[in-house]
Amino acid sequence: MPLSVADFAALGSKPITILSTFFPNVYLRMDGAGVTTFTGSGGGTVNCQFGAGPLEKFRLHANADGSYSFESAASPNVYLRMDGAGLPLITSGPGGGTVNCQFGVEPYERFKLHAQADGSFSFESATAFPNVYLRLVGSGVTASTDAGGGIVNCQFNANGGGHEKFLLNVAG
């Protein structure tokens, strides 16, 4: 059963998964191998995976400003990073920007979670890029591969968009 905002406080250090609502059995994948210190442009790889293995597990952290950060369960202190610089200010098309990993939590690693009517969430940049949302396109991701696949980037003004909605579940 998907998690709700009311469930977040009880999670503690239990890992969660981030499942696309649009692409069946396609999860957000974050490979933070080699990300061991802060780097301005981030590093590692964020893409999609069919099914949920170790790189598809995250720890949800509440920040003092009301935002949330997603830490890799496989790479401690490595967080989901979203950079919306240069993103076209249109609500359709291929999106843009950069989604990757960062060591530690700075402004690019903070997200507002917008609850949707279907129990899913859209992830908006909390401080660095207002009205910029996490976008996942899992077209062709139909089997698990070592490198993952698909596209994870940013979309402008896409709260509740098809490629911008995710179910949060306790990892099995």
Q: What is the first-to-last residue Cα distance?
A: 12 Å
- Level of helix content? under 10%
Note the total helix count.
Answer: 1
Q: Which class of secondary structure composition applies to the elements?
A: mainly beta
Biggest sheet overview: 2 strands, antiparallel
> What is the CATH architecture term?
Trefoil
Q: CATH class, please?
A: Mainly Beta
Which sequence of strands runs across the widest sheet? 1-12
Overall pLDDT confidence: 96
Percent of residues in β-strands: 35-45%
Unreliable sequence segments: none
Q: Over the alpha carbons, how many angstroms does the gyration radius reach? A: 14 Å
GO molecular function, one term: alpha-L-arabinofuranosidase activity
